[in-house]
Write a structure and sequence with these properties.
Structural class: alpha+beta
Protein name: Serine/threonine-protein kinase RIPK
CATH class of the largest domain: Mainly Alpha
Number of helices: 15
Largest sheet: 6 strands, mixed
Keywords: Kinase, Transferase
CATH superfamily of the largest domain: Transferase(Phosphotransferase) domain 1
CATH topology of the largest domain: Transferase(Phosphotransferase), domain 1
Shape: elongated
Number of strands: 13
Order of helices and strands: HHHEHEEEHEEEHHEEEEEHEHHHHHHH
Distance between the termini: 150 Å
CATH architecture of the largest domain: Orthogonal Bundle
Helix content: 40-55%
Radius of gyration: 41 Å
Number of domains: 3
Length: 474
């Protein structure tokens, strides 16, 4: 029975590690023929993988590269497609079949029918990623993805069906994910809001995918975990895609992998950005950011937000442990229909994942256990929650309306004041008229008695002719 040898990731990326660190090991020792054959095979395999990763490029013969990959990935069941076949199934890479574009290049939808390879492939829709020669990634990222996904199989990792390498063309053929990426589902302007239970299902699926990578016999650091790399099938099952930046994890006494800082702004762990030291805890931090996006409905980095709120982690993390503040930052599109207990526990988990100290972050196995406990919570808040986004035009209209009402009230108040003032003046006039009448009577009496002069002086002093209609007759 033939024993298939598993590829070690270390031999792919760090072939120098196969050199012995002990000088005594290099001393020739008596060898049995079988041992010699085994070591020779390992040596040949190591040199083959080294040539694949370090010596192959876009100018490498496609035939040689395909043969090397087939020999290096036994049992992977990857299909080698021709460029002509991929042109047929995508209708010559028609723009109508364009699904999107990322750092690697454009992604097209295609369909493999029963005529293409009847005995090997069943009819199915596929997604084909084409390397953009002027893009950010290149041959190494393409090769890395073929090697990783050619060996790794898991329900929460996207399935790589095959690849194509002709001349300078590099393509990857995946299973088709009908729901697209989490980024599109969560942030697309006119999309239906994801329910709370669906969000937790997606978070759990993505966590299981990362946990599988971290707990493998040879740990793998994903390095580019973000919402756009989490793809969703028809049932919203999350699967990780795009392994172009993936790296082997540290082995033995090593605590980290030193590498060039790469990734996406807003998702990369702070210690990785500062030092270039990559660990599985770096992936945990990135997962915390995506979990925060699921809770708040906001992007990891959004320049359209106010200055203090542009960095999601810096703005939201201090609010995750306060229930009152947590309610304020929850995605308003949920309309209050979420488990309050589940939201608190998910927020506490995100708080731990976003710790600035990597050792304080939980492992992905702990993350999975925590999220599994949340999926069965059914304390969805009752009632209807309505969130109204203020409209500028409506706000201006309401402002003008309030100003107009205020002015009318002031005018009414002014008119009422004037009315009371006129009423008060009329009362005074009545009093003065009555008093003037009384003085008139007195003057008539005094005139009879001979005090005409006194009467005239009194009338001049006390009667205000300009405010009364009194007429004195002498």
């Amino acid at each position: 029975m033939r024993v298939k040898k598993k590829i070690t990731w270390l031999s792919i990326f760090i072939p120098s590690c196969f050199k012995s660190e002990n000088p005594s090991d290099s001393t020739p020792l008596p060898k049995k023929p079988k041992t010699t054959k085994t070591k020779k095979a390992v040596s040949e395999k190591s040199s083959l993988l080294e040539r694949l990763y370090y010596q192959s490029d876009l100018s490498t013969s496609s035939t040689t590269l395909s043969e090397d990959l087939s020999n290096s990935l036994p049992g992977s069941n990857l299909h080698v497609f021709t460029l002509a076949e991929l042109r047929v199934i995508t209708h010559n890479f028609s723009s109508y079949n364009l699904l999107g574009k990322g750092g690697f290049g454009p992604v097209f939808k295609g369909f493999i029918d029963h005529k293409l390879r009847p005995s090997a492939l069943k009819p199915q829709p596929v997604a084909i990623k084409l390397l953009d020669l002027d893009g950010l990634q290149g041959h190494r990222e393409w090769l890395t993805e073929v090697i990783f996904l050619g060996q790794l199989r898991h329900p929460h990792l996207v399935k790589l069906i095959g690849y194509c390498c002709e001349d300078e063309h590099r393509l990857l053929v995946y299973e088709y994910m009908p729901r697209g990426s989490l980024e599109n589902q969560l942030f697309r302007r006119y999309s239906v809001s994801l329910p709370w239970s669906t969000r937790m299902k997606i978070a759990l699926g993505a966590a299981k995918g990362l946990g599988f990578l971290h707990e493998a016999k040879k740990p793998v650091i994903y390095r580019d975990f973000k919402a756009s790399n989490v793809l969703l099938d028809s049932d919203f099952t999350a699967k990780l895609s795009d392994f172009g930046l993936a790296k082997d994890g540290p082995e033995g006494d090593e605590t980290h992998v030193s590498t060039r800082v790469m990734g996406t702004r807003g998702y990369a762990a702070p210690e990785y950005i500062m030092t270039g030291h990559l660990t599985t805890a770096s992936d945990v931090y990135s997962f915390g950011i995506v979990l925060l996006e699921l809770l708040t409905g906001r992007r990891a980095a959004d320049k359209s937000q106010p200055r203090r709120e542009q960095n999601l982690a810096g703005w939201a993390r201090p609010r995750l442990k306060d229930l009152r503040k947590l309610r304020r930052i929850m995605d308003p599109r949920l309309e209050g229909q979420y488990s309050e207990i589940g939201a608190q526990k998910a927020a506490a988990l995100a708080y731990q994942c976003l710790s600035h100290k990597p050792k304080r972050r939980p492992t992905m196995s702990i993350v999975v256990k925590t999220l599994e406990a949340l999926k069965d919570l059914d304390d969805i808040l009752g009632g209807t929650f309505v969130y109204i986004v203020p409209n500028t035009d409506q706000s201006d209209c309401m402002h003008r309306k309030h100003v107009k009402v205020g002015e009318e009230r002031k005018e009414l108040k002014k008119e009422n004041g004037c009315h009371h003032h006129r009423k008060h003046q009329m009362n005074l006039l009545r009093i003065e008229a009555n008093f003037a009448g009384w003085l008139l009577v007195c003057s008539m009496v005094l005139e009879i008695l001979g005090g005409k002069l006194v009467c005239s002086v009194c009338c001049m002093l006390f009667i205000r002719l300009r405010k009364s209609d009194v007429v004195c007759y002498y």
